[in-house]
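In this section we turn from sequence analysis to structure. A common task in structural bioinformatics is to predict how a protein folds when a small molecule is present, because the ligand can shape the pocket around it. The inputs are simple: the amino acid sequence and a SMILES string for the ligand, here flavin-adenine dinucleotide. Study the lines below before reading on.
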Amino acid sequence: MQTDDRIIIAGAGPVGLVAAMLLAEAKIPVTIVEAEDDISDDLRASTFHPPTLDMLDAYGVTGQLLAEGLTCPTWQIRMHETGDKAVFDMSVLADVTAHPYRLQCEQAKLCRIIRDKLVRDGNVDFRFGHRVTGLSQDSDGVTLKLMIGQNQDTVDMRARYVIAADGAGSKIRDLLQLEFDGKTYPETTVLASTSFPFHEHLEGLSNVNYCWSASGNFSLLRLKGFWRCSLYYNPDLSMEDAASDERVQGQLRQIMPGHDRFDIIDRRPYRVHQRIIKEYVHGRVLMAGDSAHLNSPSGGMGMNGGVHDAFNLVEKLTTVWNGAKADLLDQYTRQRQPVAYNQILVQADKNRKRMAEKDPAKRAELLKDLQAITSDRDRLYDHLYKSSMFAGLDAAKAIG
Ligand SMILES: Cc1cc2nc3c(=O)[nH]c(=O)nc-3n(C[C@H](O)[C@H](O)[C@H](O)COP(=O)(O)OP(=O)(O)OC[C@H]3O[C@@H](n4cnc5c(N)ncnc54)[C@H](O)[C@@H]3O)c2cc1C
């Protein structure tokens, strides 16, 4: 057994890597164990909200993200066929953030920027190809059982604390037998990326667009060099069928009639869940990010919320590491769990429901309400303060 006085982070996704960076800055020894051999390139989160950019700026990460992504000074909700829209201009937030825009940038780029920084600085021990398979804890620490690569070799590793940032299918959550209450939405979503230049064909697009169309709804999010389209399918279709080239081409043709074939870079089907655990702190094991909460991607809050978890948790963990009482960690659950539920899960669910509305009269009413917000500066400010996740951070801070 390798025994060490350190913190182990399970998972080199955005949440685990941000936590590792913050712990390394605090001069706390960190080992990061990651099941895969490298950072995942799966196209998932792409939206960074202003407070996340503000937080990461202090560590020299935001400048690089901005260089690798596309800023979105506005985002919009629109009727596809008519082009009628509500445009949310984020410049109203300029007095509360150094980054009054959304940033569109793949989460893998954030992970690689942080991984490279930590490898350069040499103060984090990376163990790729190490999968958590077992866990036990006592009053002094936690022992993880890890499977190395595919060859079934195992090693035990011990730490004072473990941060479980091992994602939606968290093995650690299972090992702790935590209930992950919630629901799975019925529809299959396909994330299709294409080099097709929607901005040259659809007038007045922002870089983030949530669209109602006669046949349903979809979203168009622009990244550097391509567009990412979220397409929704009838629950009766299998995931494979929904993601077939034929179906995806068909959906894109409905968006751009008259255009025959689209260059599809990637097609990824997924089911969306809304789930949360009750307690984030289990002895010396601390849950963060998708291992603790999952929400609809509508509004782009899952990764941002997980990064906010990492900042909150590491602040307390550093204090405890340096001698404060361990019950300070309970404040992490008290502050972050209700915010994840009330400000992220509930809000993402509302966003999804709004866009899933099919009745033309109700859609027209919804759009009218949204346009009333965008044309009133105070209401726009309040709306964006909340949807950009500032309100959630304020709410967490207000909890003792
Ligand atoms: C289609 C889609 C679009 C999204 N868009 C957005 C968006 O725009 N904005 C936003 O904020 N969020 C978005 N999200 C959510 C976002 O992708 C997640 O919230 C985010 O990836 C969570 O980060 P994480 O580090 O907690 O988990 P993950 O990114 O899942 O990382 C977990 C890591 O743990 C590793 N791991 C798993 N099991 C083990 C094990 N047993 N041992 C060791 N390592 C293990 C995995 O290999 C992985 O590297 C989107 C999600 C989807 C599916």
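Residues 330-356 form the longest helix (27 residues). As an exercise, try to locate the residues that line the flavin-adenine dinucleotide site and compare them with your own expectations.
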